[in-house]
Amino acid sequence: MSGTIRAGLLLAAAVLGAGVARARLVALEAPSAGPKDLLYLPNGKYLRAASLGQAPVAADLVYFWAIQYYSDYQRADRFRYIEHVFGSVIPELDPRFIDPYWLGALILTTEAADLEGGLRLLDLGAAKNPGEWVLPFLAGWECDHAKEYDRAAAYFDRAARIPGAPAALVRLVAGMRARGENLREAIAKWNEVLADPRGDDASHAIAERQVRTLTVRADLKDLEAAVVTFRELRGAPPRRLEELVHAGILSRLPLDPDGKPYRYDPATGAVTSDASRVLGS
Amino acid sequence: MPPVIEIRNLRKSFRGHLGIGSHLAVSDLSLSVEPGEIYGLLGPNGAGKTTTLKVLLGLVKPDAGSVALFGRPPRDVAARRRLGFLPENPYFYDYLTAVEFLDLYGRLHGLDAAERRRRIERAIERVGLKGREKTPLRKFSKGMVQRVGLAQAIQHDPELVILDEPMSGLDPVGRREVRDLILALKAQGKTIFFSSHILQDAEMVCDRVAILFKGKLRAVGRLDDLMSPDAKWVEVTVKGPVPSGVPGERRVNPDGSTLLVLAGFDALAPAVAAITAAGGTIAGVWPRRESLEDLFLREIGRAQVEERVS
Amino acid sequence: MRAMVAVALNTFREAIRDRVLYLILAVALLVVAGSRFVAMLTVGSEVKIVKDLGLAAVSIFGLLIAVFVGTALVSKEIERRTVYTLLAQPIARWQFVAGKYAGLFLVLAANVLVVGGSVLAAVALMGESPVALVPAVVLILVELAVVAAFAVLFSSFTNPILAAVGTVAVYVAGHLSWSFDLLRKRVTTGAARTLCDVLHAVLPNLDRLDVKADAVHGIAIPASTFAAAAAYGAFYALAVVVLACVVFERREFA
Question: pTM to 2 decimals?
Fold first, then answer.
């Protein structure tokens, strides 16, 4: 047997052995163990030291990891460390990294119904990045939704004063509260922000997210209202959403931003969608 | 007995820097080395001698042609067991002492501990390093490194010894010692194959030579066959006048005397008579046969002419 | 085989005669000794700090040795041309490379033994049983074996600097293999997905060999996991060394 063949066989055997061992390791891993548990995510200062001068990259890596971690909707105690990760660890590494502030805030306000937590994150971000109009703007927006109109007004005012903020837009939005909550108008306004070429990536990302979230919210509101109307007309709730169209209450059934139909539970009359999750499915 | 080394139509070229161009190091080289002889591979620097040796030892692969050591391919481990090699300007592990170094190489040859000890002692004595064997190689002079290199090449009693420029960088005493060693090895029945560009040394020890120039073989054979044994010419140093009737080339020496080159011994007696009669004094008479250097220069000259013509 | 052993022992001898090795060892031991004092800064478990710093010292200084000694191993011989006489001996080329690797592994094992042993001693001196740390120390050696294999591989065909860069890159990529796993799940189709799959499978999953966190908290590592991890590392290192032998076999020494 020539040397090359022997080497090839040995190589193949070693690769096979490694593959088998690795498969075993993967199988032995705890099923829900995606990224490692938060137990060992140290304080941002230590992480900064450990990153040996590559703090921004480290911030990115932690952000990626965090997104994956929080995408797991089965995880118990999901919201426990959000402020630690998005408000302490990542800002220590890269305080000018805008995305984590608003993502964390969004998760807290939308999914955990924790307005104060969300505002804390946005305030921190705004304090470290006074030139970013989007952060106080978003804070005002969340206050507005939570019907804390005075605080909302204060935030919108702050946002409008930052140079570069589309002041007209901000004032318009602020004035909206007087007209009551009009989701469709809000969506239109956010679409304007999205279309504004002067906006930066962060603003566009936020606007995109807002459009998505608000569209779902508006659709759900319309669908639930339609269900109630149906019940008043026919005496019983519809068995399927399609019946709303047949009954002439809706002209057509909307699809969620992912293109999937909205889910309907005839027993409770509730309409839901996975698309209402901040981080998707 | 089959030849110890057999090279047939060897061709090797190297790619230039960054893959641009190529340099033909050896082309169409054929030679064979018989057991028990001292064979010299001669040529100026860049002739392709080192490349040939590297192909012989399996350090580079030939583009074409075949090379056999004891009838086996160069990478064959069994063949390498029977040879010893000393490269040009050798480097050895400088963190080892001479003994440790030789011990390592002895191990590689599969010698057991007791055997190694004996042979190392013998080899150290043979190359004249006695008393320095415990010194780290880092502290060795160039001459000493050469010696320990020779020790490593012979300690396992190989049948074939390959040396690349073994005399380079040595003083006349050192060169003499290497020459003596080569002759002693031949007396033990070994075959020696060495390359050199110092022709006087080769002339003194070689049985057969091959002359390489720019990768091509220009002359090969026994020294005696390549060079005529008879005196080719006679050089006579004359103080004073040389009568014009005397045939032969005249050259003036720096001290004012004349060097007269006569065509053969027959011309000597009449020339001496004529010179003495004219009042000149004969300062010296040198019968000269063609030296290896003359042969060498002749071959090179011919090669250069060929090159210009083609 | 004998030739390989001779080269291995000689490589070991070369390493322990190198002053740089002792410098690295001294700093590592200093860190372990100093961890006792650093631990006084913490509120809570002081032993944890000693364990963390100690294991980090074993790992990082072992890595330094694997990279700096390993990448010079073959390339230095070629540069200094000591390899010429060596390869003229009755030794097969693969024995040379395998011997170099074996010698390097011995050096790393000795280092892990000394520094790791001192960590275990330091922990024991603080009154806690260091037994739970042993599997982590062993797996550190396995991880070093993989890194050393890459160092020898790169050393067999390029100069020491590029070899060092390559080895460090593999080490970093190996520890970030979890991110390739995440990327795979996000990118569902196409060439990008295939690339992610290939990279994730081919790069050494060094993060799977890292049980330091669990060991420090006294969580027992199941025998099956330990065995699978050790086997993975060992087979992987073997594959890379075989590759290095093949590369070296084909080299020309102009």
Answer: 0.72
